[in-house]
Amino acid sequence: MKVYNTQSKRKEEFVPLVPGKVSMYVCGPTVYNFIHIGNARPMIVFDTARRYMEHKGYEVNYVSNFTDVDDKIIAKAIEEGVTAQEISERYIAECKKDMAGMNVKPATTHPLATQEIGGMIEMIQTLMDKGYAYNVDGTVYFRTKKFKDYGKLSHKNLDDLRSGNRSLLVTGEDQKEDPLDFVLWKPKKEGEPSWPSPWSDGRPGWHIECSVMAKKYLGEEIDIHAGGEDLIFPHHENEIAQSECCNGKPFAKYWLHNAFLNIDNRKMSKSLGNFFTVREISEKYDLQVLRFFMLSAHYRSPLNFSAELMEASANGLERIRNAVSNLGYLLEKADGAQARESAEKDGGASTAQNTTAEQNAGMTEAERAELANVMAFETKFDEAMDDDFNTADAIAAIFELVKYANSNVSSGNTKAFIQAVRDEIIKLCDVLGIIAEEQQELLDTEIEKLIQERQEARKAKNFARADEIRNQLLEQGITLLDTREGVKWKRA
Ligand code: AMP
Ligand code: ZN
User: Fold this and answer.
1) Is the N or C terminus of the chain more exposed, i.e. has fewer CB atoms within 10 Å?
2) Strand boundaries in 71-145, DSSP class E
């Protein structure tokens, strides 16, 4: 598998630090509002990278933070007259709902900045002790000039940056030794959340949180660090400086960055009014369509959001789902006798004994040979994904498989063969986090089955089991109503 490393500016063979395991850190959102569809891009593309690595057999430890202390959160709290914590808790909960809608797997750990202040103070102290940080009236800065590798990720011309920043020096920042130095700790302002530290009552800078959380949950050296391309400089450059100077080791082996999402070919911005939250999109589309749309382009290509492209994605997804549901229909229709007949025609001597139900469910010789053609689509899919997660080509491989299924699979095939083709489409979609199976119907029948089981448990006075089923349904937002006409259920 090859991945494009921002640091080396080329595709590199992916070799994890520990064979079979991947440690991956993805910078998460600052939670002061509903997430917008730009924020959704790194969530979806790196969730897909994770799923693909899991598909290849890696055990992935995936960490993604929520920045829950920040100027924008504080401003929103003041605006609403509530605490910053209330704002961040509200929007973390909303963000998790959006993630579930987009079928983004929860991270192995979702750390919160405010829960990791102790670790941040410790890392800043180490940087102070090693001479990489200095305190000016309670504000602690990182001394960028002391870190020789500063700039190695973004490949920026530091001299240009220095002179640019020097002329832009904002009031208060002239305490810095160097225009490129950045804040590790800052004293509180009136009404702001704060924590005691050896330097001042205050709060951490933004960059330090990711260095600390990556270290705590993944270790001093990690395989993959990812985020949107706007984070390359200064955020990720600063993370490298902090982590490498504190730990004395290289920080991340591979740096992956997604390109930006634009709207109608213009930069997404609130002032232009071309800004959509994931929640707004969910009112018009199944969020699976949004996911499909995001994956229809390579993650390093800029992607333009437009109603036309969303319609095209909806149609593409529909095409796959139709094929899956058609195969489901063929599966029900596939006639055992017909399959047996063709098995006998193909199989010769060995099929003469094919009389048990289990053997009837087996494929014909011809189908077994044909299966190699089906698996070739998976090879194509894997090759695309092995090439720096080329989801656009991976989707093309799925479409080819769908086309194959539509024109080559019929009710004359054995159930086993139809099932194998259907499972293959569902499996490849699942690697991309795309749900190819119509869920609603399946879910309804599952619910009915569980209700039936609960009724039987109650009849048998097994109330513990009955309660367990009620709770299991409740967890999925299904409430049960015991009425005179029987049990009714509804979704939350
Ligand atoms: P923020 O909450 O601004 O820190 O952003 C959270 C994540 O979303 C970061 O990885 C950003 O790089 C990413 N991001 C923000 N806007 C966009 C956009 N328009 N397109 C792609 N990624 C974005
Ligand atoms: Zn970060």
Assistant:
1) C
2) 133-136, 139-142
